[in-house]
Structure formats: structure tokens, C-alpha cells
Amino acid sequence: xxxxxxxxxxxxxxxxxxxxxxxxxxxxxxxxxxxKGMALVEEIEDAGVSxxxxxxxxxxxxxxxxxxxxxxxxxxxxFKLDRLFRDAADCLEVTREWDELEVxxxxxxxxxxxxxxxxxxxxxxxxxxxxxxxxERNLIRERTKAAMAHLKATGKRAGAIPYGFDLxxxxxxxxxxxxxxxxxxxxxxxxxxxxxLEKISSSLAEMGKRSRKNKRFYREQIKRMLx
Length: 227
Description:
By secondary structure, the chain is an alpha/beta fold.
């Protein structure tokens, strides 16, 4: 009986989402392993971890790599492609490494059907779908960026209300906050004189200028003001 390791991941926003929950992934993987006649030697979980982080840099992902390097482990099972990898390059690099270790990747649901890299066709389908998934993410990113740029250009709210502005009663339009705009003007004047971000922070603190949370302005806040 081939020994396998399973991997489950949810991001914070997905933890309560039906179909992506830890329990749902775990049940699907266990059923798949039983159907394939594989024994799960360990079930690895990364809870509240973004897919934007490389697999090796996640705590559970690092454990997965450790186990996959052991000769007794012959397979890695995950529910979907995006549970494991950040992008197509990450997917292909990792699966190539696992190929050299003779470890097959099994996905319970890839485009609506299970697939594994133990066959040439399975590997080909994985490569194609990894590229398609990355293209979809890039298209979403482009559309989001264009929409945010349009909102900013028309003076509408785009994400969090930036320092220096208030939200109008319509819930969309940004209106300048006079007192906060004065602080921004001061920060820019200090910068024009050649002061560092840290020095600007100190100068604003000395003048009694505080953030919305009544705290000292930090470097990142000042950088956003200057932008």
C-alpha cells in the first residue's frame, strides 16, 4: 500500500466558506486516499495562511517538504491546486522536485476531476491547468487595478479611506479633511527640506500632530502621505 501525505490549507477569509473548509477538504482527501488504496501517514494543515506565500515558507508546507523527501512516502494529496501553490511557476518547480523523489501529486479536484502526476497525461493536464489558473488570477488582478484606478480618478472611495480624506454621506465620494491635509502639507514641506522619514515623524510628534488613532506617525504612514 503506497504511503501518502495530505495537505489542507485555508486562508482567514475562507475558513467559514462551505466547500473550502478544513473539514470538507479533509473528508474529501480521506475518501480519495481510501479509493486509491493509499495510507495517509500524516495530515498536514495550514490554517489562516494565504496562497500568496510559497509552499516551502508555510509552517505546514515546510513539514510537507520534509515528509516528501522520505523514501517511504510516495504521494502528496491535496484537494485543489490553489491549496498548494502560489502560481504556475511554483507548481511546476515543486512538482519537478517531487518527480525526482518519485513522489506523485494527487489532486482530488482539478477542473472538476481528480488528477495525478503518475502518468504523462496527468502531468500534462496539471501543467495546462496551472497556467490557466495563473491567467485567471492575473485577469482578476488587472480588472481590480483598473477599477481602483477609475474610482481614485473620479474621487470615489477605493478601499480604506486614506488619511487626509473623509467619506461623504453617499458612501462613495472622498472629501478632503482640512486638518489632516494640513499634516500632509507639513510632511511634504519637511521632505522638501531633505528630512528623512524618521525625522519627519519626530518633527510631527514635536508639533503635537497625531494619527487618527492618536499615535505617532510611523514611516509607512508618512510614505503614503508623501505619495
